[in-house]
UniProtKB/TrEMBL annotation:
Protein name: COX15/CtaA family protein
Membrane topology: Multi-pass membrane protein
Transmembrane residue ranges: 26-45, 81-98, 110-131, 137-160, 189-211, 238-258, 270-293, 299-322
Species for this entry: Ferviditalea candida
Coiled-coil residues: none
Length: 332
């Protein structure tokens, strides 16, 4: 077996190229895709109010392995089946990473994160079925699922980057790339935006689980007002809208800094552009959600699109947080 020596921040990594190529890369991508389906399935369960489709039984559905063919029971049961299959993929992926990439600390850390968040979201899901939970706790379930998805995405990207060979021994590690001075302030700004995005996501999940989407009709005004009465469902939705607006402004500022301070560094500018594009798309999808509240079939589709975009945004922000941390450490 041939080995390629990679350098990253004063550490030497010996990675067996044939080992990395031996199905591990595709396993991580498959796990990431599966976790994304779990996210969508959970959002669909909430939007269709199918969470009680299997009664209070878990892991059975109304006391059966195969439930009755009602819409609610099939949606809930299919979500459980997909989650179970993805759980198996997670276990296999974690075992492969820890056994084949023993010296790859970041990959092992992401794998551990996947396992932890997957078990936690499964436990929260089971408790939500067997015992009534508050909307605040149910909203946390989506947030944990998002962390599990981001961990799988980071692991998939890490394994993919390991497979890229430097052109010569003198070339920089492709996992680090072009050396550039990323300031501590810009790095911290990305971290702050990522954490704040998670808060906005939680507020959005809280809107779903309290079924408050109808609290604000119209967009960008809420019930025809810039500042509506801040009570009940209206207050919940308006709080989410304000938080999302602040997030968009922060991302616009970040993109401006990336374009003005790091001209010529394509990776930094590309990441900033993708993050900004997803943030704008998220705002537009949120507006579409508001306009389709009265049409149940379209409303479910627009809500799922809203979930898809925010999941992609948070995943890219998570990667950017790690990437800019790496680039900042190049200064030392």
């Amino acid at each position: 077996m041939k080995f390629v020596v990679y350098r990253r921040n004063d550490f030497n990594y010996k990675v067996g190229v044939s080992t990395v190529r031996n199905g591990l890369k595709w396993m991580t991508f498959l796990t990431s895709a599966g976790m994304f389906l779990v996210l969508l399935g959970g959002a669909l369960v909430t939007k269709t109010k199918a969470g009680r489709g299997c009664g209070s039984d878990w892991p059975l559905c109304n006391g059966k392995f195969v439930p009755a063919y009602t819409l609610e029971s099939m949606i809930e049961y299919n979500h459980r089946v997909v989650t179970g299959i993805v759980g198996i993929l997670v276990v296999v992926t974690v075992v492969l990473v820890w056994s084949r990439l023993k010296k790859q600390t970041d990959a092992k850390l992401y794998a551990a994160g996947i396992l932890f968040f997957t078990l936690l979201q499964a436990a929260l899901g089971a408790m939500a079925v067997m015992w009534q939970q508050s909307s605040a706790v149910l909203a946390l379930h989506f947030g944990i699922s998002l962390l599990a998805f981001s961990s799988t995405l980071l692991l998939a990207v890490t394994v993919w980057r390991l497979e890229r060979k430097p052109k010569t021994e003198a070339d920089p590690d492709p996992a680090v790339g072009q050396a550039i001075r990323i300031s501590k302030g810009f790095r911290n700004l990305i971290w702050l935006i990522t954490v704040y995005t998670y808060i906005v996501v939680y507020l959005g999940a809280f809107v779903r689980h309290t079924f408050s989407s109808g609290g604000c009709t119209g967009w960008p005004l809420c019930n025809g007002q810039w500042i509506p009465e801040l009570t009940g469902a209206t207050g919940i939705v308006f709080m989410h809208r304000v938080a999302a607006a602040v997030l968009l402004l922060a991302i616009i500022w970040m993109a401006f800094l990336a374009n003005s301070r790091y001209q010529g560094h394509k990776e930094t500018q590309s990441l900033a552009f993708i993050i900004l594009a997803l943030a704008l798309l998220q705002v537009m999808s949120g507006a579409w959600v508001s306009y389709t509240i009265g049409n149940e079939e379209v409303f479910i589709f627009s809500s799922l699109l809203h979930t898809v975009v925010i999941s992609g945004l948070f995943g890219i922000l998570s990667y950017a947080s790690v990437r800019f941390w790496e680039l900042h450490r190049l200064q030392k």
